[in-house]
Write a structure and sequence with these properties.
The complex is a heterodimer of chains A (about 280) and B (about 300). Chain A is mainly α and about 280 residues long. In chain A, about 70% of the residues lie in helices and about 0% in strands. In chain A, helix 7 (about 155-170) packs across helix 9 (about 185-215), helix 8 packs across helix 9 (about 185-215) and helix 9 (about 185-215) packs antiparallel against helix 12 (about 245-280). The relative contact order of chain A is 0.13. Chain B is mainly α and about 300 residues long. Chain B has a single domain (about 60-285), classed as Orthogonal Bundle (MetI-like fold), CATH 1.10.3720.10. In chain B, helix 2 packs across helix 13 (about 260-285), helix 3 (about 60-95) packs parallel to helix 7 and helix 8 crosses helix 10 (about 195-225). Chain B is globular. The chains are: A mainly alpha (about 280), B mainly alpha (about 300). Chains A and B meet through helix 1, helix 3, helix 4, helix 5 and helix 9 of A and helix 1, helix 3, helix 4, helix 5 and helix 6 of B.
């Protein structure tokens, strides 16, 4: 047996192991999809199976979309979509402005404020939730969609950090040349720099999309009326056996809830994997 | 005197962040510190009760200790497991093989959807009654009375497993760090006749320590705020065996409206995280190797 055969054997072992791990990683998701196809009567026969004993796609998805508490699922979907898109644009936009200021402009206390940005990253948001709730209640924003969107409009520490890293990689001579040509700071940012840092803007947008779309803690605390619920809150209601006893519907809507994430992931994979490799705060 | 030539523009650009910092962080922070010294319950006018809330947590509240115990176990089991696994897989993927991109993607997918309720729903059904695990055991003729989620001894492990399953983002960070280790180091080790273990423990690990350190801090901070999993999968049960600290804080605040007390609980959590972070930073000199740093 030569070197060549040994290398081939190693390669086979690697691929078998890697595929097995891959299957294990992906199994829960495939299982969810398969379960959303199973009829409620056979749902818990050989639960592990990925092949439905009795197919019932139509009933599951139809009953899932019927909704809960007199509210159709599409309402939750629309709520989530509005909150996510508005929050995402607000968050990435304000973070971009702050990141530009921190990395390119010369101003008083800039290091101090940047330290504050980093500090907000270290303190868990849950600590702030009680006083935030009280403030939002005082200004009458509890149980409004604004309460879900507003916190994202002040820039996020993670995004500011990510974009500052990107800005620092661009030579300052570009700014200076543009300034000589008569551009003001805003024109420098939007005409010269934004096209260059586009990858970091895309990466930030995707992460913002994921976090807002999946956010559970804030909506749970800030919202009361079912018709204003986002998808995570709705699914949580579906889970309550006292008010909803339809696993087919629950699984079908769970599939719908992760679908946008998976689609986004497939389209923007490259940006994500590179983004996390660069800063990798969270995933 | 130093001139700050961009003061005006900079503060205009920073305005949204500054408003948020004051409105959503700084002011709430002070409010929260203040409430933690009061008996505020959302309806009354808060009156100052000194350290009573903090005393209550440490001397009278058994649930506080239970929540602490659960959260510490969770963090101390999950973080090393997840990082070790992430490093192991990253090392395997750092060789020349076909389809590496595909494997990397497969392993990363759970990390991006991990926070969603749908995944907690799946976990609950896989490890719950009549779930996947029980049905597989049935195939082998093993009939369990209690599911892994229903058993107080194993419930926390189910939640830990969900965290390990999401090792993908740590793996990506390790992978990019591994790629930055200069190949010349390995070549000279080979010339010196070093075996696999020596190379791993003397080159790979030391070169990775900054990344491990960075990961460790982030994962610990993240671990202490575990909420969704224990809220959705087990609701803190059975027998409070998965009652995470944030879940307990949430219940105190929004089921009992014990706002003053829950603010105190929040600050105790901040103190715990701060202690962990400071201790880790202090030990840094003993084990973290920075190429451009001192002589260590």
């Amino acid at each position: 047996m030569g070197m060549h055969a040994k290398r081939n054997l190693n390669s086979v072992i690697f691929h078998v192991g890697a595929c097995l791990l891959g299957l294990l990683m992906i199994y829960p998701l495939v299982w969810l999809l398969a379960s959303s196809f199973k009829s409620n009567a056979t749902m818990f026969h050989n639960t592990y199976s990925l092949i439905p004993e009795e197919w019932d796609i139509a009933t599951n998805f139809k009953s899932g979309f019927e909704g809960i508490g007199g509210v159709k699922f599409i309402t939750f979907f629309i709520n989530s979509t509005i909150v996510t898109i508005v929050g995402m644009v607000g968050c990435v936009g304000t973070s971009l402005l702050a990141a530009y200021a921190f990395s390119r402009l010369d101003f008083k206390f800039s290091n101090f404020w940047f330290g504050c940005v980093m500090m907000t990253m270290m303190i868990p948001a849950q600590v702030m939730v009680v006083p935030q709730y009280i403030i939002l209640k005082k200004v009458g924003l509890i149980d409004t969609r604004a309460a879900l969107v507003l916190p994202w409009f002040f820039g996020g520490a993670f995004f500011i950090f990510l974009m500052v890293q990107f800005f620092r990689g661009i030579p300052k001579e570009l700014d200076e040349a543009a300034a000589i040509d008569g551009c003001n700071k805003f024109q420098i940012l939007f005409k010269i720099l934004v096209p260059i840092v586009r990858p970091s803007i895309i990466t930030s947008s995707i992460f913002a999309f994921y976090w807002i779309w999946q956010d559970f803690f804030q909506p749970l605390i800030f919202m009361n009326s079912t018709r204003k619920f986002t998808i995570p809150l709705a699914l949580n209601m579906y889970l309550d056996p006292n008010s909803y006893n339809n696993y087919g519907g629950l699984f079908a809507m769970s599939v719908i809830s992760v679908l946008p994430i998976i689609i986004f992931f497939i389209i923007f994979q490259r940006y994500l994997v590179d983004g996390i490799a660069m800063d990798g705060i969270k995933g | 005197m130093k001139l700050y030539k961009d003061n005006k523009v900079a503060y205009v650009l920073l305005a949204p962040w500054l408003i948020g910092f004051f409105g959503m962080w700084l002011i709430p922070m002070f409010i929260s510190i203040y409430y933690s010294f009061t008996d505020f319950n959302l309806l009354n006018t808060p009156s100052f009760i000194g350290l009573a809330n903090y005393m209550r947590a440490f001397t009278q509240d058994k649930m506080f200790y239970q929540a602490m115990k659960v959260t510490f176990s969770y963090v101390l089991i999950l973080v090393p497991l997840r990082l070790a696994f992430a490093l192991f897989v990253a090392m395997l993927l750092n060789k020349k093989h076909k389809c590496l991109g595909l494997y990397r993607t497969l392993y990363y997918v759970p990390s991006i959807i991990g926070g969603s309720i749908a995944v907690s729903v799946v976990w609950k059904q896989i490890f719950g009654n009549k779930g996947v695990v029980m049905s597989i055991l049935e195939v082998f003729g093993i009939h369990q009375k209690m599911s892994l989620v229903g058993n107080p001894k194993t419930a926390l492990w189910v939640i830990v497993l969900m965290g390990v399953w999401q090792f993908g983002s740590s793996m990506l960070i390790f992978l990019s760090a591994l790629k930055q280790i200069p190949g010349s180091l390995y070549e000279s080790a080979k010339v010196d006749g070093a075996n696999g273990w020596v190379t791993f423990s003397r080159i790979t690990i030391p070169m990775l320590t900054p990344t491990i350190f960075f990961n460790l801090i982030l994962q610990i901070i993240n671990g202490f705020r575990v909420f969704t999993e224990s809220y959705v999968i087990t609701d803190g049960g059975p027998l409070d065996s998965t009652l995470s600290y944030v879940l307990y804080l949430y219940r105190r605040a929004f089921n009992y409206f014990d706002m003053g007390y829950s603010c105190a609980l929040a600050w105790i959590l901040v103190a715990v995280i701060a202690v962990f972070t400071v201790v880790l930073f202090k030990t840094q000199n003993n084990w973290v190797y920075y190429e451009t740093g001192g002589d260590e």
